[in-house]
Every structure is written in structure tokens, then in C-alpha cells.
Amino acid sequence: MAVDEVPIPKLDYTPQTIPEPEPTPEQARTRRNYLNHTTSVLSWLLTVDHKRIGLMYLVAVTVFFLFGGIAAGLVRVNLVSPHGAILELDQYNKAFTAHGTIMLFLFLIPVIPGVLGNFFVPMMIGAKDMAFPKLNLASFYVWAIGASFFLWQLIVGGLDPGWTLYPPYSTKYSHTNVLYAGLGIFITGFSSILTGLNIIATVHKMRCPGMSWGRMPLFIWAMYATSVIQLLATPVLAVTVTMAAVEKVFGVGIFDPTIGGDPILFQHMFWFYSHPAVYIMILPGMGVINEVLTCFSRKNIFGYQAVAWSSVGIALVGFLVWGHHMFLAGQGYYLGMVFAFLTMLVAVPSAIKVFNWTATLYGGSISFPAPMIHAIGFIVLFTIGGLTGLYLGTMGTDIHLHDTYFVIAHFHFTMVGGMMFAWQAGLHFWWPKMTGKMYSDFWSRLAAIVMITGFALTFLPQFVAGFQGMPRRYPNYPPEFQVYNILSTAGATIQGFGYLMPVFYLTASLFFGRAAGNNPWKATGLEWQVPSPPDAHNFKDIPEVYFGPYEYGVPDGLRLVADGHLGKKAVHANGAHTGAGVTNGS
Amino acid sequence: MAANVNGPVAHHFNNMGQQLATVRMGMWMFMATEILFFGGAFCAYAVYRLMYPKDFEAGSAALNVGIASVNTFLLLFSSLTITLAIRAAYTSRTKALGRYLCLTTLLGVAFLGLKAREYHMDYEEGLIPNVSTLSPEAKEKHAARMAALAAEGDRLEAEAKTKSGSEAAELRERGIELKARAAQPPVAFNENVKVVLSHNKAFKGRPLDEQTYDVGTPSAANAHDYDPFKVQLFFMFYYSMTGLHVLHMIIGVGLLTWQYVLTRRGFFDHNARFVYIEVMSLYWHFVDMVWMFLMPLLYLTGPHTAGEAIEMFKKSVGMTGGH
Question: pLDDT at position A158, please?
Fold first, then answer.
């Protein structure tokens, strides 16, 4: 049968591989996918399927996001009044510490690597699973054990030294559960290391034929860079926590100045992990944005190589900037200058990304479903967050802004405005693939707009308050700052409603949503060329990749594939399951 | 990495080559993360070593270099045996593989046994930070020294009665000060470490806290004089770093035993599975490497003589009868 005789559908994109056929209604009813091929509880709890592990992370991090959100709500409500509206002083300390620790260690760090990374890294590179499936399951349970230490710590009375756990706040002056929190950090850290290790090995060794480094989706590049940081930075935190524990047991100071230790050393070692850790949080988000932007502007990414290598650049330079947290901690003037310079340097790859995203949008045929609204929100808010970071990275201005609400606003613009919106973008983008169901278009768009509005209202006033000198971490403040705090709390309330909405409409979509089909967004990636939800082993056969990841806007894309751009061998190998009718032509 | 009933290629790999490469890479990355883990501890050690060089020298001089030297040889030798084990695995000589794994395990166990003995001796000598009890010898020596101080105080006060004016007041004050000092409860760790250091003939430093109070004229300052209180910090690093190393050794011995059992069951008869021996040996070499850094940083920072090391080792294993 000649190629010409087969009807080839017109597509405005070229998929990376030949798509599997859309299941017929009959097939759709009976087909077994990764969700229902086994159904016992044990088959979920002991699964080594990366997709199921991803879903388990999704449930777990959502619960912790709820806890962290409640703590944030308490802080915001308390700040309505200059004297503290509802909380005692020590309760306030515990509330903001709970917010910080939970959001960072149990939400931001695991969320995209754990959920989307687990689910889509193997699918996007054409692998059947992660490189070490059992290790993957182990790292989920290790994370769960660490998280339960955090929960235990909350139940038995909370923690009060702030998420940075600086001594002597966390040693001499804290009578709360630093030990449990330390154990929680130590153990979740190991989970993070194992996830990172797994992803690096997967990216290196599990790519399908034709998936060269230059054809990997940029989400994979971002996850790769993230994993390098997880692998190399997290152990330093682990050993720091170990030394703090040894100090506690023997009572001789390594870090605690009151018994002869050096608290600055703790800060150095803590930030050696925790600054790269903010890139663990933001890099996967940047990866998601590449996928969403290209798909909904129907354009190839502008400057693939630049975006790919800027991820690696951020990961590497990100290791060298930790000292900018300590400009005022007594680390020395010249050291501060070096760190200030390096901080400016790390802004460059981030800026490269933003410029490339903007250029990608330029001239694209843009549509605005929920993931795209979140993605655009990400670019705008992250840019504000990044630019205000420059004020904090410059030593002169940092002296004025250090430990004020300006820092809080900057950090939340990058972490919430950046990561949280990227997470929402990714979740909404891939939800149809993960569940096979489409959510409500109206409600999802509305939620995105509510979130962005609430977010801006929450954190923009904090820039002003911080610039005028309102310090962070205090439960009380001079009355002239009250207007900013009320605006901020109002914004937080709107934001809270925004975050609750997806819980409802996404859950509803599971029961009432229409079937999403293989490729609802008409995207090019490998994960979209298989039925939704995917099979237990992802691909019927190992896919072979012929094109780059973002060949959008190619008129009649699939004919390009059929007309011999694949080479004979490829057509032959895949002829058996090509719905588009590409067969082993005579 | 457990036995796979479907044969050696796991379900998610396409072929053996891919699986071998992935397993190897996984272990190398694990090594990278371990290096950073120990690196953090080495970094903190370096900071304090620079801050308190003499006290770290003193702390090092108080350690049992005899056991550490023997342990170094044991570990180096175990590196050889595990390499021979890989060689046996590559060439499908499973009997030899079993023998070498067994030998490596025994060397590891010997290391751990000696290390336990060393910890026990440190404990008996009272070299535990913030310890509350004096070792018998330290108790004796401290009591004698305090008695001498008190006697000197009494003598000065008696002498003051024969003098007059400001001179008498000065002598009386000094006498009272010495007696007060003699009445103070000892800081157990300080006394213990002084005793241990007094046995090290190669070490020339003296404790700073005794120079102001000692009977007679204080001798000129010495480049090796140390503050016993700060020596505690050295011991913090000694215990945490060797403790982490021991933990890794225990895991290593566990893995070796497991692989020995697998060998006996015929798991490695399939010759592609040598990769598990290979990555295990990577881990074992890594643990050796950590020791090769710990040995000079902890044990060889202070002065020791070969004779002393031999004596110490003999004493540790009960070949001679103590001091």
C-alpha cells in the first residue's frame, strides 16, 4: 500500500513520533490503563510505576499545601491589627515557622519533581519507567516518613525559630521541637537526593532512540539541572543537621555561640544548601513554562539551546551565591562583594529565559486556556520577583531592605508568583493526560484569574511596606503600616479562594469531565502521542523520535513525517501501530 | 537490585548494556552525593582547625594512633580483596568470588572490632566531651595537684603573716586565690585529656589553664600549649566523623554479607550480574577513601612516634598490661 493512498490528517504541528491511534469508543470502555490495570490497595502502595508514585505525591503535597496555607492564613489574619489580632506572640512565631517549613520542605521542593517529574520525565523521553523504579518508591516513603516527623512536631506543639533554624534561635532560645523538625529535614532531604539521582540516571540512560540531548523537551533539561542541585546540595544540609544534633547530644558548640561555636558557619552551610534549594524550587517551574508557552502560542521555542543551557547555568552559578543571605551577618566586606557580583551573574540565565519566552510569544497564535493564563502570570510575576532580587543582591540597598517585608514580597513573587503558578500551569496542562478527563474550561480560567489577582494584591503592598521599613517576623508593627497589611490580608483571602477552586473543579472533572482524548492540546511531545490515561508501560513499543520537541506551526505536519522524512527503517519499525496511516509503504 | 525472576534484564530496560550502564551511573552519582555529605563535615573541621590549630594538635595527640594505623592497613588490604572479587566475578569464578567477598567482610569486621575497642578505650580514658567523671588516673593526679595548690596557698598565707603592708596583702590574696582554685570542682574532660596527653612523649604542649595556677614560676610559653576545653571540639569532630564512617562501614559489611549469601545461592552464576559486585566495590572503595582522609586529619595532626603507636596497639589488644 503506497503512502499516498492513506488519508493523512492535516496537523499544524509535527509530533516527535508517530502518534498511536485514538481509541474507538468500544476500546475506550474496555482498555486497561495505568490507573485500573490493577486495583487493590496494595498494588498502589507497593507500586513501582512512576505514574502512580507521581499521583501519590500529588495527594500528599496537596495535603501539606493545605496545612502550610492554613498557617499562612493565621499569620495574615494576625497582621490585620498592629498589635496582633488573634495570636499570642509565641503562637505567631510557630505559625510563620510552620508556614515556612511546610511550604518549603514539604510542598515547593517535592511538588514538581515529585508529581510532574515522576510522571512525565520517563514519558517525555520515551522510557517505560524511571531508571530505578524501586528506589523511586523508596524515596516516596522516605519522604513520607520525614513528613510525618514534621506532622508530629506540629501536633506536639510546633516549632518557633523560623524556617532557617539559625542558632542560637534554634538551640538556646527555642524550647520547641527542633529535634523532630531537624529529623524531618534530614529524612525528606534524602528523599530529595534519591529522586534527583533517579531523574539524572533516567535522563542519561533511558532516552529512546532518536531522543538526542538536543531533542529533549526543555522540561527535561530543567528537571536535569534541578536534580544536579538536589544531588549535590542536599547532603550538605544533611551533614549540617547531623552536626547540630551532635552538638545537642554532647553540648559542645559547633554552631551555638554560647557554648563556643560559630553561628556564621551554620549560616554558610545552611545557605550552601538553601540557596541552591530555591533553584530546586523554581527550575522545574521554568521547565513547565516552556512546554505550556510553546503549545499555546503554536510556535517553536525561541533559542532552544540558550534556554536549555541557561537551566544548567542557573544550577551551576546557583551554587556560588549563598553568601548574599549574609551580607549583614558579619561575613566580611570583600566576601560580600564577591557574592554580590555572583548574584548579579545568576540573574543572567534567568533573564535569558524570560527574553526567550517573550520572543516565543511574539507572532504566535496565542490561545488562553487555564494553563496558558497561569504561564503568562508566571512570566510577569516571576520577572517582578527577579528584578526586585537585584535590589537585595546589591550590598548597598540590601542594608536598607534586609529582613524587611521587601524580602518577603520578593521571595513570594519568585516562589508563589513563579513556582506556584508554574505548578498550576503544569497541573492544568497535564491533568487530561494524567486522568484522561477534561476539567471545566470556565472555572479553571476563572480560578487562574482569581489567583493572580489575589496574589498581586497580597504581595505588591508588601514591597511598599518593606521599603518603608516594616521588619519581617514581628507580630506587631507601627500603625502606619496597617493599610498595607489589610490590603495584603484581603489579597490573601482572595488567593485562598483561588487555590480552593481547583480542588473542586479538578475533583469534579474526575467524575463528570468529558474524555480528554489522546492529545487535547494538539501538543508535540511524546507523552501526548499515547492514549490518556497512559498504559501501565507508557508505550506499546519503544517510540522513535524524529523531530525536535516544539515543531508547532508546521502546516500539514504529519505529511512531513509520512513523506519520507523519517527514513525507511523508522516507518517500518512503527508501521504496525500508526493511526495516521503511515505504513510500510511499497 | 534484588534477584529478578524474569532474568537479569529488568522490565523497564531494553537491553543488558543499558541496564549495566544505568546501575553503574547510579552508584557513581550516589558517590557524588556522599562526597558532598562528608565534604560538609570536612569543611567544618577545616574551619575549626584553622581557628584552634594547637588545640586540634593536642586532641590528635590524645588519640590511639596504633589502632588507627592497623585499621588503615586492614582497609587498604580489603580494597585489594574486593578488587580481586570483581576480577573473579568478571571471569565467572564464583567460588573465588565467594572467598574474596568473605575475606573482605572479615577485614571490614576486624576494622569495626578494633574501632569499637578504640571507642571503648576512649570511653575508659574519659575522652568524651562534657563527661562528668574523671578517669582513675586523672582523679589521682588532679587530687595531688589540688592538694599541692592548697598547700602552696596555706604557705603563702603563713608567709603573709611574717610580712607587712602591701606585700603581705598581695601574698594573702594570692594564697586565697590558690586555695579557692584548689577547692573548685574539676572539669572532668580537661583533666582526662591532660592525663592522656601526658603519656604521649612526642607531644610537647602543656595545658594553658595550669600555667597561671601552677606551683612555682610558670615556665615560658610553648608553641604547642593548648586549652583543654577547646580540645573538646576536636573530639566532637572525631566522634561525628568517625561515627559517620563507621555507619558507612556497617552498611558496607551488611551489603558484602548479602552479596556473599547471593553468591552461595548462585545469583552471580549469571555473569551479567557482576555489575552488582562492581557497584558494591565502588561503595567499599569510597568508604576506604574517606578513611584515608580521616586518618591524617584526625590521627596524624598531632605528633606520635612509631614506638608509641606500637605500644598503644599492644595495649589495646591486651598484649601488655597498661601503664
Answer: 85
> Do residues A326 and A268 make contact, with C-beta atoms less than 8 angstroms apart?
yes
- Nearest CA to A175 among A151, A203, A156? A156
Mean pLDDT of chain A, nearest integer: 90
Q: Could you say which of A129, A201, A232 has the minimum Cβ distance to residue B36?
A: A232
Domain ranges across chain B: 16-129+229-316, 136-225
Residue of B19, B20, B33, B189 best to disrupt the A interface, most CBs of A under 10 A:
B33
Give residue for cell 592497623.
B70
Q: Does A239 touch chain B if contact means CB atoms closer than 8 Å?
A: yes
What kind of fold does domain B16-129+229-316 have according to CATH?
A: Four Helix Bundle (Hemerythrin (Met), subunit A) (1.20.120)
Asked if A44 is an interface residue toward chain B (Cβ–Cβ < 8 A), one would say no
Cβ contacts below 8 Å, chain A against chain B, sum to: 109
Residue A563 binned pLDDT confidence (cut-offs 50, 70, 90)? low
**Cell of residue A113, nine digits:** 519533581
Grid cell locating A532? 490518556
Q: Is the pLDDT of residue A577 over 50?
A: no
Candidates A333, A429, A338; CA nearest to A378 is: A429
Nearest Cα to A131, choosing from A193, A77, A188, A202?
Answer: A202
Give the one of B41, B229, B233 whose C-beta lies nearest to A239's C-beta.
Answer: B41
Closest CA–CA distance from residue A549 to any residue of chain B (Å): 23
CA A79, CA A485: separation in Å to the nearest integer? 6
pLDDT tens by residue, A344-403? 999 999 999 999 999 999 999 999 999 999 999 999 999 999 999 999 999 999 999 999
A573 Cβ under 8 Å from any chain B Cβ = no
- Select the residue of A197, A206, A269 nearest B40 (Cβ to Cβ): A269
- Domains of chain A by start residue, with CATH: 3-36+522-577 (no CATH), 47-291 (1.20.210.10)
